[in-house]
Amino acid sequence: MLAKRLIPCLDVDHGRVKKGVRFVHLRDVGDPVKIAAAYQQQGADELVFLDITATHEGRSAIVETIEATASQVFMPLTVGGGIHDVSDMQRLLKAGADKVAVNSAAVSNPDLITAGAEKFGRQCIVLAIDTKFNPISRQYEVYVNGGRTPTPLNAIDWAKQGVSRGAGELLVTSMDKDGTKSGFDLDLYRQLSAAVNVPIVASGGAGAAEDFSDVFTNANVDGALAASVFHYGELTITEVKRQLLKDGVIVR
Amino acid sequence: MIAIIDYDTGNTRNVKKALDYLGIKNVLSADPQEILAADGLILPGVGAFRKAMLSLQQRQLVPVIKAAAKAGRPILGICLGMQLLFDQSLEFGQTAGLGIIAGQVVPIPATIGVKVPHMGWDLNQATTADPLAAVFDQQFTYFVHSYYVQAKPKTILATSDYGVKIPSIVKQQNVIGIQFHPEKSGEIGLAGLTQFKELTENADYSRN
Protein backbone atom coordinates (compact mmCIF):
# COMPACT_ATOMS: atom_id res chain seq x y z
CA MET A 1 0.00 0.00 0.00
CA LEU A 2 0.94 3.60 -0.52
CA ALA A 3 2.96 5.40 2.10
CA LYS A 4 1.39 8.52 3.57
CA ARG A 5 3.22 11.63 2.39
CA LEU A 6 4.77 14.39 4.50
CA ILE A 7 4.99 17.58 2.51
CA PRO A 8 6.81 20.74 3.57
CA CYS A 9 5.53 23.87 1.88
CA LEU A 10 7.90 26.63 0.84
CA ASP A 11 6.48 30.09 0.28
CA VAL A 12 8.60 31.67 -2.44
CA ASP A 13 8.81 35.38 -3.16
CA HIS A 14 11.02 36.51 -6.05
CA GLY A 15 13.01 33.29 -5.77
CA ARG A 16 13.55 33.41 -1.99
CA VAL A 17 11.78 31.21 0.55
CA LYS A 18 9.51 32.94 3.02
CA LYS A 19 6.80 31.75 5.35
CA GLY A 20 3.75 33.80 5.99
CA VAL A 21 1.95 33.16 9.24
CA ARG A 22 -1.75 33.32 8.46
CA PHE A 23 -0.65 34.68 5.09
CA VAL A 24 0.52 37.96 6.60
CA HIS A 25 3.88 38.21 8.40
CA LEU A 26 6.93 37.34 6.36
CA ARG A 27 10.41 36.33 7.37
CA ASP A 28 13.20 35.37 5.01
CA VAL A 29 14.36 31.82 5.57
CA GLY A 30 16.60 31.32 2.58
CA ASP A 31 17.62 29.60 -0.59
CA PRO A 32 14.98 27.28 -2.10
CA VAL A 33 17.45 24.79 -3.59
CA LYS A 34 19.32 24.35 -0.31
CA ILE A 35 16.13 24.05 1.70
CA ALA A 36 14.70 21.52 -0.77
CA ALA A 37 17.89 19.45 -0.59
CA ALA A 38 17.78 19.53 3.20
CA TYR A 39 14.18 18.30 3.15
CA GLN A 40 15.09 15.51 0.74
CA GLN A 41 17.80 14.50 3.18
CA GLN A 42 15.32 14.48 6.08
CA GLY A 43 13.01 12.17 4.14
CA ALA A 44 10.31 14.55 2.96
CA ASP A 45 8.10 12.81 0.40
CA GLU A 46 7.27 15.79 -1.75
CA LEU A 47 7.64 19.57 -1.76
CA VAL A 48 5.14 22.27 -2.49
CA PHE A 49 6.35 25.65 -3.72
CA LEU A 50 3.84 28.40 -3.30
CA ASP A 51 4.72 31.45 -5.35
CA ILE A 52 3.62 34.48 -3.37
CA THR A 53 5.30 37.00 -5.66
CA ALA A 54 2.78 39.80 -5.97
CA THR A 55 3.89 41.42 -9.20
CA HIS A 56 3.37 39.92 -12.60
CA GLU A 57 6.93 40.82 -13.66
CA GLY A 58 8.38 38.94 -10.69
CA ARG A 59 6.68 35.68 -11.68
CA SER A 60 9.42 34.39 -13.96
CA ALA A 61 11.57 33.90 -10.84
CA ILE A 62 9.58 30.83 -9.78
CA VAL A 63 10.35 29.11 -13.08
CA GLU A 64 14.07 29.57 -12.42
CA THR A 65 13.62 28.37 -8.85
CA ILE A 66 11.95 25.17 -10.06
CA GLU A 67 14.54 24.65 -12.79
CA ALA A 68 17.37 24.97 -10.25
CA THR A 69 15.66 22.80 -7.63
CA ALA A 70 14.73 20.03 -10.07
CA SER A 71 18.39 19.82 -11.16
CA GLN A 72 19.54 19.01 -7.62
CA VAL A 73 16.59 17.45 -5.84
CA PHE A 74 14.92 14.29 -7.11
CA MET A 75 11.51 14.11 -5.55
CA PRO A 76 8.05 15.23 -6.63
CA LEU A 77 7.61 19.00 -6.80
CA THR A 78 4.28 20.81 -6.85
CA VAL A 79 3.98 24.50 -7.68
CA GLY A 80 1.08 26.77 -6.91
CA GLY A 81 0.39 30.49 -6.88
CA GLY A 82 -0.06 32.81 -9.80
CA ILE A 83 -1.06 30.12 -12.30
CA HIS A 84 -3.64 31.68 -14.59
CA ASP A 85 -3.53 29.71 -17.81
CA VAL A 86 -2.25 26.61 -19.55
CA SER A 87 0.93 28.36 -20.66
CA ASP A 88 1.79 29.15 -17.01
CA MET A 89 1.35 25.44 -16.29
CA GLN A 90 3.49 24.45 -19.25
CA ARG A 91 6.38 26.70 -18.23
CA LEU A 92 6.45 25.22 -14.72
CA LEU A 93 6.08 21.60 -15.82
CA LYS A 94 8.80 22.08 -18.39
CA ALA A 95 11.08 23.57 -15.73
CA GLY A 96 10.72 20.38 -13.68
CA ALA A 97 7.50 20.64 -11.67
CA ASP A 98 5.52 17.41 -11.51
CA LYS A 99 2.25 19.00 -10.56
CA VAL A 100 0.73 22.45 -10.70
CA ALA A 101 -1.84 23.68 -8.20
CA VAL A 102 -4.60 26.05 -9.21
CA ASN A 103 -6.69 27.96 -6.70
CA SER A 104 -8.28 31.38 -7.36
CA ALA A 105 -7.88 31.11 -11.13
CA ALA A 106 -9.84 27.84 -11.12
CA VAL A 107 -12.67 29.44 -9.16
CA SER A 108 -13.01 32.27 -11.66
CA ASN A 109 -12.42 29.96 -14.63
CA PRO A 110 -13.18 26.29 -13.84
CA ASP A 111 -12.39 25.35 -17.46
CA LEU A 112 -8.74 25.90 -16.57
CA ILE A 113 -8.81 22.59 -14.65
CA THR A 114 -10.18 20.73 -17.66
CA ALA A 115 -7.80 22.42 -20.08
CA GLY A 116 -4.81 21.53 -17.90
CA ALA A 117 -5.94 17.94 -17.40
CA GLU A 118 -6.50 17.44 -21.11
CA LYS A 119 -3.12 18.83 -22.03
CA PHE A 120 -0.92 17.39 -19.27
CA GLY A 121 -2.97 14.60 -17.69
CA ARG A 122 -5.07 14.63 -14.52
CA GLN A 123 -2.13 13.58 -12.40
CA CYS A 124 -0.47 16.96 -13.08
CA ILE A 125 -3.39 19.09 -11.96
CA VAL A 126 -3.92 19.80 -8.28
CA LEU A 127 -6.94 21.78 -7.15
CA ALA A 128 -5.95 23.88 -4.14
CA ILE A 129 -8.79 25.05 -1.94
CA ASP A 130 -8.63 27.50 0.98
CA THR A 131 -11.66 27.10 3.19
CA LYS A 132 -13.17 28.39 6.41
CA PHE A 133 -16.10 26.93 8.34
CA ASN A 134 -19.08 29.21 8.59
CA PRO A 135 -20.79 28.36 11.90
CA ILE A 136 -24.05 30.03 10.86
CA SER A 137 -24.58 28.30 7.54
CA ARG A 138 -22.65 25.27 8.90
CA GLN A 139 -20.75 25.04 5.62
CA TYR A 140 -17.13 25.08 4.60
CA GLU A 141 -16.85 28.19 2.44
CA VAL A 142 -14.23 28.63 -0.27
CA TYR A 143 -11.96 31.68 -0.11
CA VAL A 144 -9.75 33.06 -2.88
CA ASN A 145 -6.91 35.59 -3.24
CA GLY A 146 -4.75 34.04 -0.56
CA GLY A 147 -7.69 33.64 1.80
CA ARG A 148 -8.77 37.27 1.60
CA THR A 149 -11.95 36.99 -0.46
CA PRO A 150 -14.95 34.77 0.38
CA THR A 151 -16.90 33.10 -2.42
CA PRO A 152 -20.36 31.55 -2.44
CA LEU A 153 -18.83 28.11 -3.10
CA ASN A 154 -19.14 25.22 -0.68
CA ALA A 155 -15.74 23.51 -0.39
CA ILE A 156 -17.05 19.95 -0.59
CA ASP A 157 -19.14 20.70 -3.69
CA TRP A 158 -16.28 22.61 -5.27
CA ALA A 159 -13.93 19.69 -4.59
CA LYS A 160 -16.34 17.29 -6.31
CA GLN A 161 -16.75 19.63 -9.23
CA GLY A 162 -13.00 20.08 -9.53
CA VAL A 163 -12.42 16.34 -9.62
CA SER A 164 -15.10 15.80 -12.23
CA ARG A 165 -13.46 18.54 -14.28
CA GLY A 166 -10.12 16.74 -14.15
CA ALA A 167 -8.24 17.55 -10.94
CA GLY A 168 -6.07 14.56 -10.00
CA GLU A 169 -5.43 15.67 -6.44
CA LEU A 170 -6.81 18.09 -3.85
CA LEU A 171 -4.71 20.30 -1.58
CA VAL A 172 -7.11 21.67 1.00
CA THR A 173 -6.15 24.26 3.59
CA SER A 174 -8.29 24.89 6.63
CA MET A 175 -7.97 28.61 7.28
CA ASP A 176 -9.50 28.10 10.73
CA LYS A 177 -6.63 25.83 11.66
CA ASP A 178 -3.80 27.45 9.71
CA GLY A 179 -1.19 28.87 12.06
CA THR A 180 -2.94 27.61 15.21
CA LYS A 181 -0.81 24.44 15.69
CA SER A 182 -3.90 22.83 17.20
CA GLY A 183 -4.14 19.89 14.79
CA PHE A 184 -5.75 19.32 11.39
CA ASP A 185 -9.45 19.87 10.75
CA LEU A 186 -10.50 16.22 10.84
CA ASP A 187 -14.13 16.92 10.07
CA LEU A 188 -13.25 18.75 6.86
CA TYR A 189 -11.05 15.92 5.59
CA ARG A 190 -13.56 13.23 6.53
CA GLN A 191 -16.17 15.00 4.46
CA LEU A 192 -13.79 15.44 1.54
CA SER A 193 -12.63 11.80 1.63
CA ALA A 194 -16.22 10.65 1.51
CA ALA A 195 -16.93 12.94 -1.46
CA VAL A 196 -14.06 12.22 -3.88
CA ASN A 197 -11.79 9.36 -4.94
CA VAL A 198 -8.57 11.23 -5.69
CA PRO A 199 -5.63 11.78 -3.31
CA ILE A 200 -6.17 14.51 -0.71
CA VAL A 201 -3.46 16.56 0.97
CA ALA A 202 -4.41 18.15 4.28
CA SER A 203 -2.99 21.53 5.22
CA GLY A 204 -3.31 23.84 8.20
CA GLY A 205 -2.96 23.19 11.91
CA ALA A 206 0.06 20.91 12.27
CA GLY A 207 1.68 21.48 15.65
CA ALA A 208 2.81 18.13 17.03
CA ALA A 209 3.84 14.78 15.53
CA GLU A 210 0.60 13.28 16.86
CA ASP A 211 -1.42 15.68 14.72
CA PHE A 212 -0.11 13.92 11.62
CA SER A 213 -1.03 10.48 13.01
CA ASP A 214 -4.43 11.85 13.83
CA VAL A 215 -5.26 13.11 10.35
CA PHE A 216 -3.90 9.97 8.64
CA THR A 217 -5.74 7.54 10.89
CA ASN A 218 -8.98 9.45 11.38
CA ALA A 219 -9.52 10.99 7.96
CA ASN A 220 -8.50 9.12 4.84
CA VAL A 221 -6.00 11.69 3.53
CA ASP A 222 -2.90 10.78 1.54
CA GLY A 223 -0.58 13.58 2.46
CA ALA A 224 -0.18 16.24 5.10
CA LEU A 225 1.42 19.59 4.46
CA ALA A 226 3.08 21.89 6.93
CA ALA A 227 5.42 24.84 6.84
CA SER A 228 6.42 26.66 10.01
CA VAL A 229 6.71 23.61 12.28
CA PHE A 230 9.18 22.16 9.81
CA HIS A 231 10.86 25.41 8.78
CA TYR A 232 11.67 26.48 12.31
CA GLY A 233 12.79 23.05 13.43
CA GLU A 234 9.98 22.51 15.91
CA LEU A 235 9.44 19.14 14.26
CA THR A 236 11.65 17.16 11.91
CA ILE A 237 10.32 14.89 9.19
CA THR A 238 12.20 12.03 10.84
CA GLU A 239 10.49 12.64 14.18
CA VAL A 240 7.06 12.75 12.62
CA LYS A 241 7.71 9.55 10.66
CA ARG A 242 8.84 7.79 13.83
CA GLN A 243 5.56 8.75 15.47
CA LEU A 244 3.57 7.63 12.42
CA LEU A 245 5.30 4.24 12.40
CA LYS A 246 4.54 3.84 16.09
CA ASP A 247 0.89 4.55 15.37
CA GLY A 248 0.77 2.00 12.56
CA VAL A 249 0.72 4.47 9.67
CA ILE A 250 2.64 3.36 6.58
CA VAL A 251 5.55 5.68 5.79
CA ARG A 252 8.58 5.18 3.64
CA MET B 1 26.18 7.72 -24.24
CA ILE B 2 22.51 7.28 -23.45
CA ALA B 3 19.90 8.73 -25.79
CA ILE B 4 16.74 10.02 -24.13
CA ILE B 5 14.05 9.85 -26.76
CA ASP B 6 12.61 13.31 -27.28
CA TYR B 7 9.02 13.15 -28.47
CA ASP B 8 7.28 16.04 -26.74
CA THR B 9 6.20 14.37 -23.53
CA GLY B 10 6.16 15.54 -19.93
CA ASN B 11 9.07 14.35 -17.86
CA THR B 12 11.81 14.13 -20.48
CA ARG B 13 13.76 16.96 -18.92
CA ASN B 14 13.57 15.51 -15.43
CA VAL B 15 15.14 12.29 -16.67
CA LYS B 16 17.86 14.39 -18.29
CA LYS B 17 18.39 16.38 -15.09
CA ALA B 18 18.87 13.16 -13.12
CA LEU B 19 21.41 11.77 -15.62
CA ASP B 20 23.26 15.10 -15.70
CA TYR B 21 23.37 15.13 -11.89
CA LEU B 22 24.85 11.63 -11.92
CA GLY B 23 27.41 12.64 -14.54
CA ILE B 24 26.03 10.10 -17.02
CA LYS B 25 26.60 11.19 -20.60
CA ASN B 26 23.28 11.64 -22.34
CA VAL B 27 21.58 13.36 -25.20
CA LEU B 28 17.96 14.31 -25.76
CA SER B 29 17.26 13.22 -29.28
CA ALA B 30 14.64 12.54 -31.92
CA ASP B 31 17.30 11.82 -34.55
CA PRO B 32 17.27 8.15 -35.66
CA GLN B 33 21.02 8.11 -36.39
CA GLU B 34 21.90 9.53 -33.01
CA ILE B 35 19.48 7.20 -31.21
CA LEU B 36 20.81 4.10 -32.97
CA ALA B 37 24.40 5.12 -32.25
CA ALA B 38 23.79 5.39 -28.49
CA ASP B 39 24.82 2.67 -26.01
CA GLY B 40 21.36 2.70 -24.49
CA LEU B 41 17.96 4.30 -24.86
CA ILE B 42 15.57 5.78 -22.36
CA LEU B 43 11.95 6.18 -23.37
CA PRO B 44 10.35 8.55 -20.86
CA GLY B 45 6.71 9.51 -20.83
CA VAL B 46 3.87 11.10 -18.95
CA GLY B 47 0.35 11.54 -20.23
CA ALA B 48 -1.89 9.68 -22.60
CA PHE B 49 -0.93 6.48 -24.45
CA ARG B 50 -2.57 7.25 -27.78
CA LYS B 51 -1.11 10.74 -28.01
CA ALA B 52 2.35 9.42 -27.16
CA MET B 53 2.17 6.70 -29.85
CA LEU B 54 1.03 9.29 -32.40
CA SER B 55 3.90 11.51 -31.40
CA LEU B 56 6.42 8.66 -31.85
CA GLN B 57 4.88 7.83 -35.22
CA GLN B 58 5.00 11.43 -36.42
CA ARG B 59 8.70 11.53 -35.62
CA GLN B 60 9.16 8.13 -37.33
CA LEU B 61 10.67 6.76 -34.17
CA VAL B 62 8.65 3.53 -33.92
CA PRO B 63 10.89 1.53 -36.30
CA VAL B 64 13.98 3.08 -34.68
CA ILE B 65 13.05 1.89 -31.19
CA LYS B 66 12.09 -1.54 -32.51
CA ALA B 67 15.39 -1.82 -34.38
CA ALA B 68 17.37 -0.86 -31.28
CA ALA B 69 15.47 -3.48 -29.26
CA LYS B 70 16.16 -6.12 -31.87
CA ALA B 71 19.86 -5.23 -32.00
CA GLY B 72 20.08 -5.93 -28.27
CA ARG B 73 20.55 -2.33 -27.24
CA PRO B 74 19.56 -1.75 -23.58
CA ILE B 75 16.28 0.16 -23.49
CA LEU B 76 14.59 1.60 -20.42
CA GLY B 77 10.96 2.70 -20.60
CA ILE B 78 9.79 4.84 -17.68
CA CYS B 79 6.12 5.13 -16.62
CA LEU B 80 4.15 5.72 -19.83
CA GLY B 81 7.39 4.88 -21.64
CA MET B 82 7.20 1.43 -20.03
CA GLN B 83 3.58 0.99 -21.05
CA LEU B 84 4.38 1.91 -24.65
CA LEU B 85 6.69 -1.12 -24.88
CA PHE B 86 3.66 -3.44 -24.71
CA ASP B 87 1.28 -4.73 -27.39
CA GLN B 88 -1.66 -2.48 -26.72
CA SER B 89 -3.47 -0.18 -24.32
CA LEU B 90 -7.15 0.02 -23.45
CA GLU B 91 -6.86 3.72 -22.53
CA PHE B 92 -9.58 5.55 -24.54
CA GLY B 93 -10.41 2.57 -26.71
CA GLN B 94 -7.77 0.24 -28.03
CA THR B 95 -4.40 1.57 -29.18
CA ALA B 96 -1.49 -0.50 -30.48
CA GLY B 97 1.82 -0.01 -28.67
CA LEU B 98 5.38 -0.82 -29.74
CA GLY B 99 4.76 -4.54 -29.23
CA ILE B 100 8.25 -5.25 -27.89
CA ILE B 101 7.03 -6.96 -24.70
CA ALA B 102 3.90 -9.15 -24.69
CA GLY B 103 0.99 -7.83 -22.68
CA GLN B 104 -1.53 -5.04 -22.43
CA VAL B 105 -2.16 -1.85 -20.52
CA VAL B 106 -5.40 -1.69 -18.54
CA PRO B 107 -7.00 0.73 -16.06
CA ILE B 108 -6.44 0.30 -12.32
CA PRO B 109 -9.91 -0.77 -11.22
CA ALA B 110 -11.43 1.97 -9.02
CA THR B 111 -13.95 -0.62 -7.82
CA ILE B 112 -11.41 -2.24 -5.50
CA GLY B 113 -11.52 0.68 -3.08
CA VAL B 114 -8.25 2.38 -3.98
CA LYS B 115 -7.80 5.95 -5.16
CA VAL B 116 -6.94 6.54 -8.80
CA PRO B 117 -4.43 7.82 -9.90
CA HIS B 118 -2.03 5.60 -7.94
CA MET B 119 0.02 8.56 -6.76
CA GLY B 120 2.77 8.54 -4.17
CA TRP B 121 5.52 6.36 -2.71
CA ASP B 122 4.81 2.66 -2.82
CA LEU B 123 6.75 -0.44 -1.88
CA ASN B 124 8.42 -2.70 -4.46
CA GLN B 125 8.84 -6.41 -4.03
CA ALA B 126 11.34 -8.24 -6.22
CA THR B 127 9.84 -11.40 -7.70
CA THR B 128 12.98 -12.56 -9.52
CA ALA B 129 16.68 -12.50 -8.75
CA ASP B 130 17.94 -9.63 -10.89
CA PRO B 131 20.46 -6.87 -10.19
CA LEU B 132 18.02 -4.06 -11.08
CA ALA B 133 15.16 -5.58 -9.09
CA ALA B 134 17.58 -6.01 -6.16
CA VAL B 135 18.17 -2.23 -6.08
CA PHE B 136 14.46 -1.62 -5.53
CA ASP B 137 13.46 -4.66 -3.47
CA GLN B 138 11.62 -3.53 -0.28
CA GLN B 139 12.12 0.10 -1.27
CA PHE B 140 9.54 2.82 -1.71
CA THR B 141 9.54 4.62 -5.05
CA TYR B 142 7.37 7.36 -6.53
CA PHE B 143 4.46 6.23 -8.69
CA VAL B 144 1.99 8.32 -10.68
CA HIS B 145 -0.32 6.39 -13.00
CA SER B 146 -3.90 5.35 -13.63
CA TYR B 147 -3.15 2.37 -15.90
CA TYR B 148 -0.93 -0.64 -15.37
CA VAL B 149 0.47 -3.49 -17.45
CA GLN B 150 -0.74 -7.04 -17.49
CA ALA B 151 2.42 -8.90 -18.43
CA LYS B 152 3.56 -12.51 -18.58
CA PRO B 153 4.91 -13.58 -15.16
CA LYS B 154 8.32 -14.44 -16.61
CA THR B 155 8.83 -10.82 -17.70
CA ILE B 156 7.98 -9.36 -14.27
CA LEU B 157 10.94 -8.54 -11.99
CA ALA B 158 9.12 -6.65 -9.24
CA THR B 159 5.60 -5.75 -8.21
CA SER B 160 3.85 -3.22 -6.04
CA ASP B 161 0.63 -4.06 -4.24
CA TYR B 162 -2.19 -1.56 -4.82
CA GLY B 163 -5.25 -3.73 -4.53
CA VAL B 164 -4.00 -5.34 -7.71
CA LYS B 165 -0.42 -6.51 -8.15
CA ILE B 166 1.13 -3.81 -10.29
CA PRO B 167 4.22 -4.90 -12.21
CA SER B 168 6.67 -2.17 -11.19
CA ILE B 169 9.68 -3.50 -13.10
CA VAL B 170 9.52 -5.68 -16.21
CA LYS B 171 12.30 -7.01 -18.37
CA GLN B 172 12.58 -8.94 -21.57
CA GLN B 173 16.19 -9.54 -22.50
CA ASN B 174 17.65 -6.09 -23.13
CA VAL B 175 14.39 -4.19 -22.73
CA ILE B 176 13.37 -2.91 -19.28
CA GLY B 177 10.26 -1.10 -18.15
CA ILE B 178 9.84 0.75 -14.84
CA GLN B 179 6.36 1.87 -13.86
CA PHE B 180 7.50 4.33 -11.18
CA HIS B 181 9.71 7.39 -11.68
CA PRO B 182 13.33 6.64 -10.75
CA GLU B 183 14.15 10.27 -11.56
CA LYS B 184 11.75 11.32 -8.80
CA SER B 185 12.53 8.60 -6.26
CA GLY B 186 15.44 10.19 -4.40
CA GLU B 187 18.70 8.32 -3.78
CA ILE B 188 17.26 4.90 -4.54
CA GLY B 189 15.89 6.06 -7.89
CA LEU B 190 19.27 7.50 -8.84
CA ALA B 191 20.88 4.17 -7.88
CA GLY B 192 18.55 2.45 -10.35
CA LEU B 193 19.51 4.83 -13.15
CA THR B 194 23.19 4.19 -12.39
CA GLN B 195 22.47 0.46 -12.61
CA PHE B 196 20.95 0.98 -16.07
CA LYS B 197 24.01 2.93 -17.18
CA GLU B 198 26.22 0.01 -16.13
CA LEU B 199 24.02 -2.27 -18.17
CA THR B 200 24.60 -0.12 -21.25
CA GLU B 201 28.35 -0.35 -20.70
CA ASN B 202 28.36 -4.11 -20.36
CA ALA B 203 25.81 -4.90 -23.02
CA ASP B 204 26.85 -7.44 -25.57
CA TYR B 205 25.44 -6.47 -28.91
CA SER B 206 26.53 -5.90 -32.44
CA ARG B 207 26.73 -2.34 -33.65
CA ASN B 208 26.88 -3.44 -37.32
UniProtKB/TrEMBL annotation, chain A:
<feature type="active site">
    <location>
        <position position="11"/>
    </location>
</feature>
<protein>
    <recommendedName>
        <fullName>Imidazole glycerol phosphate synthase subunit HisF</fullName>
        <ecNumber>4.3.2.10</ecNumber>
    </recommendedName>
</protein>
<keyword id="KW-0456">Lyase</keyword>
<keyword id="KW-0963">Cytoplasm</keyword>
<comment type="subunit">
    <text>Heterodimer of HisH and HisF.</text>
</comment>
<dbReference type="InterPro" id="IPR013785">
    <property type="entry name" value="Aldolase_TIM"/>
</dbReference>
<dbReference type="InterPro" id="IPR006062">
    <property type="entry name" value="His_biosynth"/>
</dbReference>
<comment type="pathway">
    <text>Amino-acid biosynthesis; L-histidine biosynthesis; L-histidine from 5-phospho-alpha-D-ribose 1-diphosphate: step 5/9.</text>
</comment>
<keyword id="KW-0028">Amino-acid biosynthesis</keyword>
<dbReference type="Pfam" id="PF00977">
    <property type="entry name" value="His_biosynth"/>
</dbReference>
<feature type="active site">
    <location>
        <position position="130"/>
    </location>
</feature>
<comment type="function">
    <text>IGPS catalyzes the conversion of PRFAR and glutamine to IGP, AICAR and glutamate. The HisF subunit catalyzes the cyclization activity that produces IGP and AICAR from PRFAR using the ammonia provided by the HisH subunit.</text>
</comment>
<keyword id="KW-0368">Histidine biosynthesis</keyword>
<dbReference type="InterPro" id="IPR050064">
    <property type="entry name" value="IGPS_HisA/HisF"/>
</dbReference>
<dbReference type="InterPro" id="IPR004651">
    <property type="entry name" value="HisF"/>
</dbReference>
<comment type="similarity">
    <text>Belongs to the HisA/HisF family.</text>
</comment>
<dbReference type="InterPro" id="IPR011060">
    <property type="entry name" value="RibuloseP-bd_barrel"/>
</dbReference>
TrEMBL record, chain B:
<feature type="active site" description="Nucleophile">
    <location>
        <position position="79"/>
    </location>
</feature>
<keyword id="KW-0315">Glutamine amidotransferase</keyword>
<keyword id="KW-0028">Amino-acid biosynthesis</keyword>
<keyword id="KW-0368">Histidine biosynthesis</keyword>
<comment type="pathway">
    <text>Amino-acid biosynthesis; L-histidine biosynthesis; L-histidine from 5-phospho-alpha-D-ribose 1-diphosphate: step 5/9.</text>
</comment>
<keyword id="KW-0456">Lyase</keyword>
<feature type="active site">
    <location>
        <position position="183"/>
    </location>
</feature>
<dbReference type="InterPro" id="IPR029062">
    <property type="entry name" value="Class_I_gatase-like"/>
</dbReference>
<feature type="domain" description="Glutamine amidotransferase">
    <location>
        <begin position="4"/>
        <end position="186"/>
    </location>
</feature>
<dbReference type="Pfam" id="PF00117">
    <property type="entry name" value="GATase"/>
</dbReference>
<dbReference type="InterPro" id="IPR017926">
    <property type="entry name" value="GATASE"/>
</dbReference>
<protein>
    <recommendedName>
        <fullName>Imidazole glycerol phosphate synthase subunit HisH</fullName>
        <ecNumber>4.3.2.10</ecNumber>
        <ecNumber>3.5.1.2</ecNumber>
    </recommendedName>
</protein>
<comment type="subunit">
    <text>Heterodimer of HisH and HisF.</text>
</comment>
<dbReference type="InterPro" id="IPR010139">
    <property type="entry name" value="Imidazole-glycPsynth_HisH"/>
</dbReference>
<feature type="active site">
    <location>
        <position position="181"/>
    </location>
</feature>
<keyword id="KW-0963">Cytoplasm</keyword>
<comment type="function">
    <text>IGPS catalyzes the conversion of PRFAR and glutamine to IGP, AICAR and glutamate. The HisH subunit catalyzes the hydrolysis of glutamine to glutamate and ammonia as part of the synthesis of IGP and AICAR. The resulting ammonia molecule is channeled to the active site of HisF.</text>
</comment>
<keyword id="KW-0378">Hydrolase</keyword>
